């Protein structure tokens, strides 16, 4: 049991020293969920993050990649992600599947629809987390549809099973939500779920901010996966900007001035004046001088003399 836990957390990128220390404190029979929680509490960082923060001076490493191949193989990362302008996507598989199955059936087709939607947008890093016990044959109290999709997504290195096991006939399940939030946070990606993860928000203030800013909710409309166009509300970013590492600002749309040629605000007017060539906004005084054909420089010199005189 100790060796399997050691291997599992090594795959996540944690150092053996930290893992052994936590296992000694919690005991060899501690659940993976508790071990992960303790690793986060003591501030242990995966080697993947450390190598990214401190690259070797002898070798140039692309930003977003790292030297530990085990962590990369588990997360399914490739070098093309570093140049990708789209955010990594982490999908709460259970939430999406149950939502597509109207909270009655675990519908794997819903997961496939969500994955296809992000693929079509060009996202290269997509991960789906599902508890391991969903591999088991379906029971009456937990029906599952299109279970073969899970196997196909696992072969494509998109689906990741969170650990679970049976102890004396009882199923012990690790908290898959923690894996979802942790991987999305470390990858600086987006969480796809209708869950608010309130318990995890209370657990970690950094996660609280991240969940508030990076949670993408969705709906299924006639077997169509539909996220909102304004994920953070009507005053927040558009969906395209929300899913991009480099948001694109919209071009300013000039609104014509309601006063037209009668406007007296001059260059202080924030509206568009079509009668002014190239929006060359003059002050009211300069506009009057232009009408009587007085040179601008001469007029300004006169203004200075007036202001200087007692």
From TrEMBL:
Keywords, ordered alphabetically = Endonuclease, Hydrolase, Magnesium, Metal-binding, Nuclease, Zinc, Zinc-finger
**Cofactor(s) annotated in UniProt:** Mg(2+)
Task: Kindly give the Gene3D superfamilies that the UniProt entry links to this protein.
Answer: 3.40.50.11980
Residue ranges of the C3H1-type zinc fingers?
251-276
Q: Which InterPro entries match?
A: Rege-1_UBA-like, RNase_Zc3h12_NYN, ZC3H12/N4BP1_RNase_Reg, Znf_CCCH
Spell out the GO cellular component terms annotated for this protein, sorted alphabetically and separated by semicolons. cytoplasmic ribonucleoprotein granule; nucleus
Q: Does the keyword Magnesium apply?
A: yes
For molecular function, the Gene Ontology terms on record are:
hydrolase activity; mRNA binding; RNA endonuclease activity; zinc ion binding
Keyword Nucleotidyltransferase belongs to the record: no
Residues covered by the C3H1-type domain: 251-276
Q: Which family does it belong to?
A: Belongs to the ZC3H12 family.
Q: What is this protein called?
A: ZC12D ribonuclease
Please report the organism this UniProt entry assigns to the protein: Urocolius indicus (Red-faced mousebird)
Gene name, Swiss-Prot/TrEMBL: Zc3h12d
């Amino acid at each position: 049991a100790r060796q399997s836990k050691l291997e599992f957390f090594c795959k996540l990128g944690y150092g053996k020293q930290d893992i052994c220390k936590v296992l000694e404190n919690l005991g060899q029979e501690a659940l993976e969920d508790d071990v992960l929680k303790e690793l986060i509490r003591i501030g242990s960082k995966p080697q993947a993050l450390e190598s990214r923060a401190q690259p070797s001076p002898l070798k140039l490493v692309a930003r977003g990649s790292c030297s530990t191949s085990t962590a990369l193989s588990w997360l399914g990362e490739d070098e093309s992600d570093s140049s990708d302008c789209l955010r990594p996507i982490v999908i709460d598989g259970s939430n999406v599947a149950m939502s597509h199955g109207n909270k009655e059936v675990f519908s794997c087709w819903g997961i496939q629809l969500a994955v296809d939607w992000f693929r079509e947008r060009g996202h290269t890093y997509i991960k789906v987390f599902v508890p391991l016990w969903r591999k088991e044959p379906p029971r009456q109290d937990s029906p599952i549809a299109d279970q073969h999709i899970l196997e196909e997504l696992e072969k494509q290195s998109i689906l990741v099973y969170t650990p679970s096991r049976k102890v004396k006939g009882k199923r012990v399940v690790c908290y898959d939500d923690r894996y979802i939030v942790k991987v999305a946070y470390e990858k600086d990606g987006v969480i796809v779920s209708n869950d608010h993860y309130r318990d995890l928000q209370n657990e970690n203030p950094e996660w609280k901010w991240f969940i508030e800013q990076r949670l993408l909710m969705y709906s299924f409309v006639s077997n169509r996966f539909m996220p909102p166009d304004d994920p953070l509300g009507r005053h927040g970013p558009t969906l395209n900007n929300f899913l991009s590492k480099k948001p694109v600002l919209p071009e300013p749309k000039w609104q014509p001035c309601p006063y037209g040629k009668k406007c007296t605000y001059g260059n202080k007017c924030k509206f568009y004046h079509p009668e002014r060539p190239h929006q060359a906004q003059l002050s009211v005084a300069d506009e009057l001088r232009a009408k009587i054909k007085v040179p601008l420089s001469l007029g300004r010199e006169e203004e200075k003399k007036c202001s200087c005189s007692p």
